[in-house]
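TICKET: design request
STATUS: open
ATTACHED STRUCTURE:
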């Protein structure tokens, strides 16, 4: 009996509250009412306080919409969303869907105001009789308000406040509903409601739900489909057909019968709908949200990482990440599906996910920096033989592995710096198979550097005194070490930096050490392909360009930065580099077997010490690509003995291991594109702008060094004496030779005579009567042709 008295008291108090609110709203006569169930025990004093604080207007919150990342051709790469939602107009929603939701949720929706007095009182009587909540009295407008408040919530605490079963929240919801009906028409509220509603299994809004369960647009929903979706709003999880088909059907059938009861549909329509299967499970679309479900997950994550750095998308990284998932953005990227498919085909043909070694390829467009493709051999994931590391990008980006040492691909930057300083591409250096550079000084941007006990050697057969082209063809280590000493490490470092090369682990400049030209620090395929693209674009380097445009739901562009290009070397210098690297892919070069098609190609192999990583970087004027095969399991080990394409490797090199990956990818990427040619280097780049060296034979070495410096050259004295006809202790000859000349500012090495008249100095003896090289020596053109003593870069020999 006491329980009944308490319930009766609650009813009275609730009615009092109902009357107070109705009077306050001035809408009692119009049929406005409020949900009374659950308000028992709410005191008159509390009612008075709450009524004074009721909100006077409803500020609609923007819908959280999914953002779409698209490839260059418009195809979808990924969908980013907290809620998979695509808003539509009411005219784009099937009328039967509108009728179904009204029939089951608020059949008097178009007759009452913000609140349904009859429905609320009916629910009140049932709930009080049963002693618990059996029916809800909320109108569609009230439900819309509640959904909106939840949508607006950004934290768990805000969500809890928006859903709390308290009288205060219900009263505020009531006043919001009154305000909303003053601001919007019934149809507008119904449209907003259907776009906000949760339809289970990750589908938010009627359009996403129609697509998710039935693969149709909301405008094409039929009766059975509409009834199922309408029934889900009450409990999206409980009535989700992918969770419980029978429960979903039972609920759908309740909706159909209610529609029949209200004479919204005919008996025949109802019977046909009741016999229809709830869903075809094979047609249900998986909610493939986020980069993990993208066909290009690594590329996608790199896109998202870059977008999180864009201040136009929010003040903080957290704000930007939230905006990306809720802002309804359309993000267009540089990815070219055709080029990406060609790169992926190469990975599929030459590697297997189970390999102990990894492979990665990035392809960039010269002149724009557009990153056309990014692939790797280990698929995305956390299972065995999968990885979350992106082997193509720097460590500063989420998931970035941070690179591998680039080996002899670094020689291209030495070539560029040498040409920039005036060294011709036919510049010869005596390059024995092994040289002793222990303690030898190399100039840097901060002074000098040296390495103790450093005796590097060549890994390939080479010409005794190769030109720059010949040295590049054979990747002659000793030539490039001596060339880098003459050029200086600072010009190489500065030019490398201008081409985007830095330590991919730390972002710091590349280390200036004597072995720099043979590979230094860790770099990525993305950096390498973009740098080589700078050569292909005749000296114009472009930062890698991933995100080409971002637009909001209204189509308004959001700043993305766009292309960022700069001329970092003259076209003439780049032409020289292109000619040198082009010859690498011609007969006699290490990349000869990788040549294909009719377009001019250029490239460079790279093999690190102990074969921990091998590279091939190359390009045409249209595309540049860098490929690496490496051990990505620290501490990195020798590739020999590891597996690639399911087979054990007995050798590892840039040309034979990484090269085929590059060739297959580039051949597919360039298929069907116009033939392109490099611009031939001018005469000065080929022959050089040499300056005559002063005659110093027979002089005191220190005096000779001063004389060379006064003439505009750098000078150093070789500590080991050589056989010569000159008096012991005097200058025997210089390298480069006086007869050859040298670019101004270049390093000239002075060789001191031991007084022996033996001629074992490999033709380097030079005297006043033989300064043009008409005696024996290695002065002929490559291959033994041409005139003895004819130096190809000397302008005084135009027929060379």
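STATUS: resolved
RESOLUTION: sequence designed for all positions
ATTACHED SEQUENCE:
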């Amino acid at each position: 009996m006491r329980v009944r008295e308490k319930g009766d008291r609650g009813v009275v108090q609730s009615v009092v509250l109902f009357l107070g609110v109705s009077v306050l709203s001035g809408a009692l006569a119009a049929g406005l009412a409020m949900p009374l169930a659950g308000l028992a025990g709410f005191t008159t004093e509390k009612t008075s306080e709450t009524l004074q604080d009721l909100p006077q207007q409803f500020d609609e919150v923007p819908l959280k919409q999914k953002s779409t990342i698209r490839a260059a051709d418009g195809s979808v790469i990924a969908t980013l969303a907290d809620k998979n939602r695509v808003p539509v107009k009411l005219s784009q929603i099937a009328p039967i869907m509108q009728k179904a939701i009204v029939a089951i949720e608020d059949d008097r929706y178009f007759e009452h105001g913000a609140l349904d007095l009859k429905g609320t009182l009916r629910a009140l009587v049932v709930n009080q009789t049963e002693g618990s909540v059996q029916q809800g009295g909320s109108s569609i407008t009230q439900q819309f308000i509640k959904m909106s408040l939840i949508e607006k919530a950004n934290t768990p605490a805000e969500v809890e406040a928006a859903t709390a079963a308290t009288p205060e929240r219900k009263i505020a919801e009531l006043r919001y509903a009154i305000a909303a009906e003053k601001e919007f028409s019934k149809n507008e509220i119904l449209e907003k409601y259907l776009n906000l509603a949760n339809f289970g299994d990750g589908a938010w809004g009627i359009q996403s739900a129609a697509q998710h369960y039935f693969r149709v647009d909301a405008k094409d929903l039929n009766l059975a489909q509409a009834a199922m979706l309408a029934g889900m709003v009450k409990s999206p999880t409980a009535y989700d057909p992918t969770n419980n088909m029978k429960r979903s059907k039972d609920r759908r059938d309740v909706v159909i019968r209610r529609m029949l009861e209200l004479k919204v549909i005919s008996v025949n329509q109802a019977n046909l709908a009741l016999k229809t299967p709830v869903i075809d499970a094979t047609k249900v679309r998986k909610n493939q949200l986020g980069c993990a479900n993208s066909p290009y997950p690594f590329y996608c994550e790199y896109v998202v990482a870059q977008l999180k750095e864009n201040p136009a998308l929010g003040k903080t990284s957290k704000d930007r990440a939230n905006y990306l998932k809720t802002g309804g953005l359309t993000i267009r990227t540089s990815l070219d599906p055709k080029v990406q498919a060609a790169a992926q085909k190469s990975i599929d043909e030459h590697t297997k996910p189970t390999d102990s070694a990894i492979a990665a390829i990035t392809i960039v467009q010269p002149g724009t920096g557009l990153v056309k493709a990014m692939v790797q051999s280990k698929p995305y994931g956390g299972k065995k033989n999968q990885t979350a590391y992106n082997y193509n990008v720097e460590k500063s980006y989420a998931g970035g592995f941070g690179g591998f040492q680039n080996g002899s691909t670094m020689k291209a930057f030495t070539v560029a710096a040498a040409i920039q300083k005036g060294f011709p591409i036919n510049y010869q250096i005596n390059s024995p198979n092994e040289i002793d550079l222990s303690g030898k000084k190399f100039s840097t941007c901060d002074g000098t550097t040296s390495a103790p006990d450093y005796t590097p050697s060549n890994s390939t057969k080479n010409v005794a005194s190769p030109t720059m082209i010949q040295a590049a063809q054979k990747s002659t280590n000793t030539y490039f070490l001596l060339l880098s000493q003459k050029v200086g490490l600072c010009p190489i470092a500065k030019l490398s930096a201008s081409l985007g090369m830095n330590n991919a682990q730390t972002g710091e400049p590349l280390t200036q050490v004597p072995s720099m030209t043979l590979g230094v620090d860790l770099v990525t395929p993305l950096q390498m392909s973009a740098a080589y693209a700078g050569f292909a674009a005749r000296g114009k380097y472009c930062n890698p360009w991933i995100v080409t445009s971002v637009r909001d739901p209204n189509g308004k562009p959001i700043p993305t930065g766009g292309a960022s290009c700069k001329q970092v070397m003259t076209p003439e210098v780049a032409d020289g580099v292109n000619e040198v690297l082009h010859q690498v892919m011609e007969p006699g070069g290490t990349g000869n077997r990788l040549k294909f098609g009719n377009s001019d190609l250029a490239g460079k192999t790279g093999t690190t010490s102990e074969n921990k990583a091998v590279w091939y970087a190359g390009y045409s004027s249209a595309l540049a690509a860098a490929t690496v095969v490496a051990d990505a399991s620290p501490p990195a080990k020798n590739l020999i003995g590891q597996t690639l394409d399911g087979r054990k490797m007995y050798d590892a090199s840039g040309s034979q291991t990484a090269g085929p990956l590059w060739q297959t990818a580039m051949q597919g990427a360039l298929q069907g594109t116009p033939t392109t040619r490099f611009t031939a280097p001018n005469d000065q780049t080929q022959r050089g702008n040499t300056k005559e060296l002063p005659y110093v034979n027979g002089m005191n070495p220190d005096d000779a060094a001063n004389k060379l410096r006064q003439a505009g050259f750098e000078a150093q004295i070789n500590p080991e004496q050589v056989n010569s006809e000159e008096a012991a202790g005097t200058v025997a000859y210089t390298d480069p030779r006086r007869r050859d000349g040298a670019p101004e500012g270049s390093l000239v090495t002075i060789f001191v005579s031991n007084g022996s008249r033996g001629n074992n100095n490999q033709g380097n003896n030079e005297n006043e009567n033989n300064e043009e090289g008409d005696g024996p020596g290695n002065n002929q053109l490559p291959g033994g042709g041409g005139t003895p003593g004819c130096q190809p870069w000397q302008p005084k020999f135009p027929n060379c």
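CLOSING REMARK: The CA atoms of residues 286 and 516 lie 51 Å apart. The longest helix spans residues 2-25.
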